[in-house]
Amino acid sequence: MRALGKELKMGGQAVIEGVMMRSEDSWAVAVRAPSGEIVVRKQPWRSIGSRIKILKLPVLRGAVILIETLVLGVKALNFSAEIASAEDQPRTGEKPGKLPEQDTQKEGFWKAFALGGTVVFSLLVGLAVFYYLPLWLTETLGIADPFLFNAVDGALRIAVFLTYLIIIAQWKDIQRVFEYHGAEHQTIAAYERRLTLDWENIRKLSRFHPRCGTSFVLVLLIISIFIFMLFGKPADWGQRFARMLAIPLIGGISYELIKLGDRYPENLLTRIMVAPGLWLQRITTRRPDSSQVEVAAAALNAALDNEGSSREEALALSASHG
């Protein structure tokens, strides 16, 4: 693991039977394969904000990170789905057959194409369910006052989001993902406290974290109410589309508020601000077991280990159910 002389904020995401972790210059995803092994994939990572300085400005950086997080999240989910569902895994130390260069290029193209299609589809579904559905429901109520219209629209949007979380939380497979979500939070918390990443240290820590994506989404939904009030009541599809264009701005503002809450955890105002998100994590996180924490620690260690980060790595680590 990298020396802890310099404070480094880690980000992460639960995936299917695994965890993705992201550091300053790399990201890694660790997945528990059906064989019991932990398979780790690591790639170099540079935010576009580190190359285009203006995108590091407050608010703008949040909008960029929102998009980058979505893309990396889909990549990690695709990889975890491949590993978790594979029935014929190569044994430890066994190298898979090498494809011809032309076939490899074709495979890379179609994987990139599929990834782009998945991101676009996810965005469209998200907009339909969490943006247009509440807006349509509010319009059916016939509310004339712009202030009240946007307040009801925002309340319905939050209600749809909460309903969605409560429904999916009943599924057994999603409950497993939420356990890995808890493992991700607890492992990052141990790292931030400079503790050894072992079960005895990690299991004692809280599964709630102020920088969680769940908290971010909730803050985004609340901020959207006030931003959309500036647009008044939409009268046509052009005005509805204009509201949609404000979503990156809302994401950027929400990101800055989350950062404030993380930077000043003891401040009364920031504690009030992050409290709803921490409460919501009671739904989206569950207590992990030692094997799930082991996967999260493997992902974090891989994301911090920069040796050989110029190429993608696939490592098989022995399972240890402590």
Provide a compact summary of the structure:
The chain is an alpha+beta fold.
Characterize the structure shown.
The protein is α+β, with helices and mostly antiparallel strands and 322 residues long. It has helices at 60-85, 101-140, 146-168, 172-192, 199-202, 213-229, 237-245, 247-263, 268-284, 290-304; strands spanning 11-15, 18-22, 26-32, 38-44, 313-317. A five-stranded antiparallel sheet has the order 1-2-3-4-5. Helix 4 (172-192) packs across helix 10 and helix 8 packs across helix 9 (268-284). Residues 1-7, 88-105 and 306-322 have low confidence and may be disordered.
User: pLDDT under 50 segments (min length 5)?
Assistant: 1-7, 88-105, 306-322
Q: Tally of extended strands?
A: 5
Please count the helical segments: 10
Quaternary state of this entry equals single chain
Arithmetic mean of pLDDT: 80
Largest sheet: 5 strands, antiparallel
- Spatially, the strands of the biggest sheet line up as 1-2-3-4-5
Strand content: 5-15%
Helix content: 55-70%
Distance between the termini: 21 Å
General shape? globular
Structural class: alpha+beta
Keywords: Membrane, Transmembrane, Transmembrane helix
Organism: Candidatus Glassbacteria bacterium GWA2_58_10
Protein name: DUF1385 domain-containing protein
Pfam family, one: DUF1385
